Amino acid sequence: MLELIFIIPALTGILTFFLPRALGRMTITGLGVLHLGFTGIICFQGLPALWPDYFQTTPEGNLVLLVTSFLYLMVAFYTVSYMAETEMHNEPVFSACLLLFLAAMGMAAVTDHIIVLWIAIEATTLMSAPLIFLHRSKEALEATWKYVLICSVGIALALLGVFFTLMAIKSSDSNTSMTFQNLLKNATGVEPIWLKAGFIFTLIGYGTKMGLAPMHTWLPDAHSEAPSPVSALLSGALLNCAFLGILKTHGLLTSAGIQWYSSQLLVWFGLFSILIAAVFMMQQDNYKRLLAYSSIENMGVIAFGIGIGGLAAYGALLHLIHHALLKSSLFLSSGNMLLGFGSKKIRETGRMPRYMPRTFTAFMSGFAGISGFPPFGIFLSEMLIVFGALQQQAYLQTAVFLIGLALVFAGAAKAVIRISFGNFTGELLVPEKWRMVIPIYLLIATSVLLTIYLPQGIHEAISMAVKYQGVALTMGGYIHG
Amino acid sequence: MLHLSDISLVLILLSVLMALGSSRIQELIRIMAFQGVLVSLVPFLLERVHTASQLDILFLLLFIGIKGVVMPGLLWFASQRVSAKMELEPIIGYHASILTGLVMMVIAAFISHKMQVASEGLHPLLLPAAFTTIAAGLFLLVARHKALTQATGYLILENGIYLAGSVLAREAHTQFVVEFGILLDILVGIMVMGIIVHRISRSFDDADTMFLQELKG
């Protein structure tokens, strides 16, 4: 019963609409624990599906599911404390939508059906929109409208891409199930033009959702106006789900033997995203927007790595895991900062070591991690991507990539120093609390742990996801430690 | 010989031009409902009409109901609560919009002609109609600034994509469950959009996206 991974949260979510507040809070954490346990069974033991035509585990889906489930649990713990500190307008709606959002992401992770994946990704947009609108300010309204409209239109184009892809693949058996793995197995011929058109629209469509420049415009608004736990989930989990659609379609092109086409597109869209993010991070005066642009940059890194392929693709999936852990930790830290300083402006923050030492430690570690310092995993993943790119002799691309990363680091470091050591003269509105710091520490610790010791199961899942794209493995079991 | 499918496709093209030229939001919604019914009919007329089972007809009625009644109904309901019902100063004028629509048709016909080499046996008007509808939907999204007009533009875009997808129905690839899932998503999307439009008009006294320009950089 693989499908229970999204059916249970969906039903619980609908139920939560009618539950009182306290019970709703218990439900969202309780379900998080259950979800993580169930995810563990799916990923490490395997579970047969009830409707194998539509749902099926895949290595890349399992990775995303694992990341999503773990993040959700941490965010749920944080959210319960966050709810106690802030005034929420309609808490049952928030709890319910959070669960429905989890259900939609779970569905995206466990399906291999090309259209069901689309349905799930569109559902994530719709379920997360009410979460962004939680504070009901005019800015939140603007962010939500942009989010819903831009993402819906983007994903509509992805549907067109899906149709083109299906048209490209001629099949003798018209009743074959439309899973990514099956599509080419039963194919009698492929029309490269339609497949390429399909990939372009898929990339533009899911790329909008994933935050690739120049389709990223909704992302900084939504991430900065959403409550911080929601930003953490959006950045750490949602973007990965959209990425799954691109990765799987790229896999189709690889099997059809025209991966040079999708690789080039991915590489240049990735590099463009990194550069755009770098430019906007230079002059950023809002720390949540700064983190949002950093997400765009990291999605660019992942797209770049997948586009290069081979070792870099391995690095890209590793990057996906560590980015999710570290970026959500940063967004949760920013939640503490927003509660304490009462402003998202960088110039209205400062003196963090004195006022909120625990959050400061978490924020600084998260920043060091996301910038690629050891012992955090991004150091490893970015190194693998660079090595992979050099192996493929993509010297120009590697140079642009490194320059982009350096610019991002320069911009982010300037801002982070202002945030941490700037001149803050006011009073702290809400003192930091242990229960709002522990989930952040856990996220960071997990990233460190996975850098030192990568479980065999995860390593195999990454390798299989990469091999699935027809890339020969270039390393044994120990690329870590 | 004139088939019903020919008539439907021509009417869809006509509805696109009417949508581009209409200034009243409620008129636009009415055109969109008309288009929704036609778009649901086309795959049926093209492929399933001779071998229609009861299930086919049931789903046909369901799709017509959602595309032609429920979705426009939701937008209509939202438009009742919005004070301004006219798009007074569109970003691109109505006459220019209709002209753009005509240019889109020519380009769509050209592109489809190029692409049909790849898959023969299609209805010659199907892809041009689909591409024109998609382009017109995108055009309405950028050339109008009332939130409701943009939501209608999104639905017209979806109609176009649905039409392009009905090329697939020819290959009997699609299953009803999946089609229904897509439609359900769009339906919920329109509901969410309707709620936000309502909120915008409450916050700003008018559902105009020109007010939504605070977040930058």
Question: Quick recap of the structure?
Answer:
The complex is a heterodimer of chains A (481) and B (217). By secondary structure, chain A is mostly helical. Chain A is built from 19 helices and two strands.
The SSE order of chain B reads HHHHHHH
Work out the helicity level of chain B: over 70%
Largest interface: A-B, 50 and 42 residues
DSSP strand content of chain B: under 5%
Largest sheet of chain B: none
Mean pLDDT of chain A: 90
Count of beta strands of chain B: 0
Low-confidence stretches of chain B: none
Give the N-terminus to C-terminus distance of chain A in angstroms: 36 Å
Instruction: Summarize the biggest pleated sheet of chain A.
Output: 2 strands, antiparallel
Question: Which band does the percent of strand residues of chain A land in?
Answer: under 5%
Question: Could you please describe the fold and organization of this structure?
Answer:
The complex is a heterodimer of chains A (481) and B (217). Chain A is mostly helical and 481 residues long. Chain A has helices spanning 4-16, 21-44, 59-85, 91-110, 114-132, 138-168, 180-183, 192-210, 218-225, 228-255, 259-282, 287-308, 311-341, 352-355, 357-370, 377-391, 395-421, 438-452, 456-467, and strands spanning 169-171, 187-190. The model of chain A is unreliable at 468-481 (pLDDT under 50). By secondary structure, chain B is mainly alpha-helical. The N and C termini of chain B lie far apart (58 Å). Chain B is 75% helix and 0% strand. Chain B has one domain. The interface between A and B is large, with 50 and 42 residues.
